[in-house]
Amino acid sequence: MYDGSHPKDQALWSVTAPAAVQTDVLDGDCGFDVVIVGGGLTGLRAAITLAEAGSSVAVMDSRHIGYGASGRSGGQCNPIWRATPEELAAKYGQAQAERLVRTTLSCADDLFDDIRRFGIDCGAEQNGWYQAAHTRKAAAGLRRLGAAWQKAGAPIDVVKAPDLHERIGSKAYDFALRHEKGGFVQPLALTRGFAHRAKSLGVRLFENAPARQMERRAGLWRVSTDRGTLSAEKVVLATNGYTDALWPGLRRSILPMVSIAVATSPLSPELQASVLPGRVTFADTRLAIYFGRYDADNRLIFGCVGSNESVGSFGGHRRLRSGLLTVFPQLAGTSLDYTWMGRIAVTPDLMPHLHEPAPGVLAGLGYSGRGIAMTSVMGRCLAQRALGAKVDDLPFPVSPIETLSFHGVARNFIPLMAPAMSMLDRATVFQDRVMRRFS
């Protein structure tokens, strides 16, 4: 059995990613057509679209390219929303929902097409994603979700036990949706690949350049840092879970949750044949969601919800180990080599938000666990709007920034949310077992 020792507190992706792009040093004042704050997947994909259209672009990051969840997520491409097309229509209106649904149906293929077109070496595999129900109630919800998206044209299959047990190598679930277009990437490698592509198009990349202040002066937006100022007609804010007080209210419109993950040692061929055979990816319906996929070296990446920047706090290591063996008991005795975390932005409706709070200012954030697929959609969307696209032609609606009235209290209790959600998950699983026994 696993001896309980903690693996190295280091992101696997930083060890296996290709070399980082060489960036510029900001010293003084520079002018561009567009300045992008945030060097993650959203900002870089926006920069590529803008540069391809002939705009001069700068991308600035307070740390380094891919520092945030873009370089530390689980790397799974989960190309579907938690809401049905009908629910999206009720929320946004029919025309807007139709644009969003069309974009959603193509988002995974669009991402993997970008990877091939740009020649990015990021371990990309599109082998499908299993969305597994942890209780019968959750299965009923997935059944409705799958039927609604099938009707809209999504290639989704229903898979039940015992076939499901063989397909994912786990008896922890008896019902799942198989999303044909799902897959995974090495997220930091993808982010660096986007950065290399952006730089090849003339985009200037500035690291260790935290944006301290934004102000409008002489018809331009000026973004000040400790070592200089970037001026532009338009500014794109793409900071997601690391959003700060740069723009009023934006930080208080999302909750910065944490995703934590562990990487095993490379699995033997025998274990690979019994754990996620076919190198598919999976995620379940728990509140404190479990997810898993392989990397290029046949390590299993397994993750769940964490409490804060320290993976081990509030029982994080224990939840990872317990969850791993709950889903894949055949991995007992397998060593765990790495653990890490990434901060994600969660919105109240679990949908990304596109904002235009002032002329020339755009913001896109709040992927709520769908970042690998949807950051590219948002990045292109932000760029198109900056280039003059009409609001009615965009996949995401432009909405006002709405601050959460409970934001301050919620941020203080975020460290307790992961263990609380885990307790609720255990309670629902126990209740489901009792109901199965007496039904």
UniProtKB/TrEMBL annotation:
Pfam name, any one: DAO
Gene Ontology cellular component terms for the protein in this record: cytoplasm
Source domain of life: Bacteria
UniProt entry keywords in alphabetical sequence: Oxidoreductase
Cleavable signal peptide: none
Domain FAD dependent oxidoreductase as annotated: residue spans: 33-385
MF-aspect GO terms: oxidoreductase activity
Official protein name in the record: Glycine/D-amino acid oxidase
